[in-house]
Design goal:
This protein is of the alpha+beta class. It contains five helices and four strands. Strands 2-1-4-3 form a four-stranded antiparallel sheet. Helix 3 packs antiparallel against helix 5. 22% of the residues are buried.
């Protein structure tokens, strides 16, 4: 199947879906000093032991926490949240390329936020596949 994320209703029908690449690679680009402040993103890393048969499943409460974590990542990268001893410019050097810049990061986060908001509002279960 490849890396994929889907929101399922109670009948286990896919309501909507999106690629979760940003989530899976996010934690490795966060500075070591603050990684532990993002436990769900850490658990989504490719090398996490939280993957069971290359799958992680989230109910509404965890979806809400994950949404909060990516919103915080956005605030940090956009210099909207001050974190002591954190060099945002240095972080952006690891995150961006000529083809993938801060606007693209914000676009990816917007897509994920929308996905999570709809999932929470509709009481859907989210499954993320490696």
């Amino acid at each position: 199947m490849g890396r994929w994320m889907e929101a399922l209703n109670k009948k286990e029908e896919v309501v909507f879906e999106v690629a979760p690449n940003f989530l899976i690679y996010c934690s490795r680009h966060l500075p070591k000093d603050i990684r532990n402040e993002f436990p769900i993103l850490l658990n989504l890393d490719l090398n996490s032991n939280k993957w069971i048969d290359e799958l992680q499943t989230f109910k509404t409460d965890k979806i809400s926490e994950l949404k909060n974590e990516i919103e915080r990542v956005r605030r940090i990268l956009n210099k909207e949240e001050f974190t002591p001893n954190l060099n945002t410019e240095k972080i952006l050097k690891y995150w961006t390329t000529e083809e993938y810049d801060l606007k693209d990061i914000n676009d990816d986060i917007n897509i994920l936020k929308s996905f999570f908001k709809k999932s929470i509002k509709q009481g859907l279960e989210v499954k993320i596949y490696l």
